[in-house]
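Worked example 3. Consider a protein that binds magnesium ion.
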Amino acid sequence: MIKVENITKKFGEKVVLDDVTVTFERGKTNLIIGQSGSGKTVLMKICTGLFDPDNGNVSFDNRPFSNTKEKRRIDIRKEMGVLFQGGALFDSMNVEENVMFPLNMFTDMSYEEKLERVNFCLNRVNLSGINKLATSELSGGMMKRVAIARAISNSPKYLFCDEPNSGLDPMTAELIDDLIKEITEEYNITTVINTHDINSVIKIGQTINFIYKGKLWWRGDNKSVMKADNRELNDFLFSTELTKRIKLV
Amino acid sequence: MLKKLGDYVILMSQVFCKPDKSLIFRKRLLHEFYNLGFTSIGIVLILSVFVGAVATILVAYNTDNPLLPEKLIGFSARQMIVLEFSPTMISLILAGKLGSQIASELGTMRVTQQIDALKVMGVNPANYLIMPKIISCLFFIPVLIVFSIVIGILGGWLACVLTGVITPTNYVVGLRSWFEPFSLTFAMIKTVVFAFLITSISSYIGYEVKGGSVEVGKASTKAVVVSSIAIIIFDLILTQMLLT
Ligand SMILES: Nc1ncnc2c1ncn2[C@@H]1O[C@H](COP(=O)(O)OP(=O)(O)OP(=O)(O)O)[C@@H](O)[C@H]1O
Ligand SMILES: [Mg+2]
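Given these inputs, the predicted complex is written out as structure tokens:
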């Protein structure tokens, strides 16, 4: 369980997050939704320690994370898997080396054991047999999936995904959503997902946190989201012609 | 400016700590030896031959006086190559090659979030990425400069043979006159300092890039400019301190 308590973050005069308190539950896919520029990525970067909050604290299973010693933070980071908005694969390494990287750094496994784990993870994201490809030879969807494989290779307890399916075709997008949900439930991971994709919201929104004007505006799940009478939430979710019709049905 | 200097010092303190895994560090070191060092051999050798030849011809041309002994030319050429041309000029050239190479590599990793990815995995990116670069340069740049001195002196000899400004024998006699071992030590001290300046400054500039590909380009230019200026300034300081 990840607890985010009273997080405030400003950039200069601009308040991006204003006293946000939210809990992400274990074994569930926890969604953060909101408009582009609402601060989803900033919140995730605070959770992973890439930004320091101006105020507030994040803790992982009751272990404080923000504002603590770097050494403690490193211990928690070793239990994290992070999928960046752009993938952030190491372009000096091929697919296999990318996925193996966390194992090389933090385990004492033999090469054979590591290779087995890499193949298992690649298989899990439906990408068996591409071990030796360079990252430049991958399509956008493959890159995302390799990045997921890398994020899960060292069996993380916490998984952060920043817009895992943006820019992908609807089928691949759904595949990735399903994959993340399966992994989350199978290994009992605390998963946090940033998205503004209504399909993901409905499909994998086990908890949904809507951020609006820097505040946690609404909280619920994919059942209650359809019936919510929060005006800003409805404006956000049902903004297109197609989704308006879904709402009517 | 002062803040940047502070940031630079902080970054260096993150760079120099115990690597997470020594096996991985050794692999990275080997990689950088090849990536930064091995690929620089060609340019250093070519430049040194010509610089040595030009130095010799220049000295010969400027001391074209029957009263001055011919061996003075070999001596002066040697002094110029050992004291200034090889350590400083070749370091400036290397600042161009290595500076842009290091800054653009790290800058690209920064803007594509690869450095962030390392950090959230629990790796110390400064240590993982920069320390192998600095350590490998501290070793191989002095080696390159020794090569450069030898090849430069050879270049001077070639110039004598090919143009006949002085006889090669007199050149060799000149080379062996008034030799002070300290001049070699001086060259090596300078080289080590320059090697550290080039790699650490370029790493800092690349590592701190913010923005996108345009900024990476700018950083790579800036790395070359700043490390070249640093080399010139330290050249003056070291020469003052050690030779007078
Ligand atoms: N490093 C930074 N410096 C200054 N301002 C920043 C920085 N990072 C983000 N911001 C600002 O914070 C706000 C929230 O940005 P954020 O990236 O979190 O949006 P987002 O919700 O992830 O949007 P998207 O869905 O487009 O990814 C933006 O207005 C942005 O300008
Ligand atoms: Mg974002």
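Take a moment to read the result before moving on. The radius of gyration of chain B is 21 Å. Chain B is about 85% helix and 0% strand.
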